[in-house]
# Entry
Amino acid sequence: MGRWLPHLIGLITPLVTIAGILAGGWWMGATIYLALGVYPLLDLIAGQSSDTNPLEEGKAFNYIVHAHGILVPVVILVLLYTALVNYTPFVWLGAISVGLSSGASGIVTAHELGHRRPRSASWWLSRLDLMCVLYLHFTIEHNYTHHKHWAKSRDPTSSPWGRNVYYHFIRTIPLQVKGAYRAKPKDVKVSMIVQGIMLLIMLIISPVVLGAFLLQAFVAVYLLEFVNYLQHHGLVRQDGERANASHAWESRHRWSRWTLLELPLHPSHHLKASTPYQKLDSHDESPQLPNGYYVMFWTALIPPLFHHRMKKSYNAYKQQVS
# Structure
């Protein structure tokens, strides 16, 4: 069996989202039930695997990531069309579902394709996906700031011990915009103007359309910043210290790996940012998250529990490497 086959599972998320919105009623919340209810259970049941093949090639991997990217605007357009021509209060449930899809499927894809050759078709698809969640500055900040300062105190996306996800979310966004503007002011200005015009057009079409769009973007961005919050939490790299795999948390939980394009193998991504997701490898010198990303999402919502479990995992890691 090709190693690319399990990664097809991730496409369930946007496809279920489309089907739920078209079905209407409570079905519009299908992705909420799936991503926040079923997936955490599957993350626990599927267990962990250290198996990787960092030399593996194959067009199938490329087709999968681009399918995710193409489905992002499709899912959002289905939501906005429904909000315009067939509005019911369930549209807001659908907007949350779309946001979960845009975050779990879309931004992960935008992150992957944002490391491709600038101005290539893949890179432009990344830009389209980010525009769909009002986060066009992300590629600039991520590539020019985060990858330079990851796990340092000056990196606005890395979180120290004791910081909760709610404060991190409020704090990190303006700092990221500021960092992106400092790196490429012209690009950020153009991005803000484009996004502003898009929002104005939606408002003219219908305030409901604008509201649904803003709600799904908020949910998607929250998911992105939860991941940023998680990936380097409590790990410190001093100025002048050479980056290594110990400065990022890793998770080998199969369900998170399969559905999130190997995003949990984050240390490998940082050691060489241009590495495509199918070539990422596991690192025994990395601290391991207590659970996969879907379980950790719920854990992070309860800060005392999150900090207890993260500290426990980190202490076990330190004993192992000492």
The two ends are 39 Å apart (CA to CA). The chain has a mean pLDDT of 94. DSSP finds 13 helices and no strands in the chain.
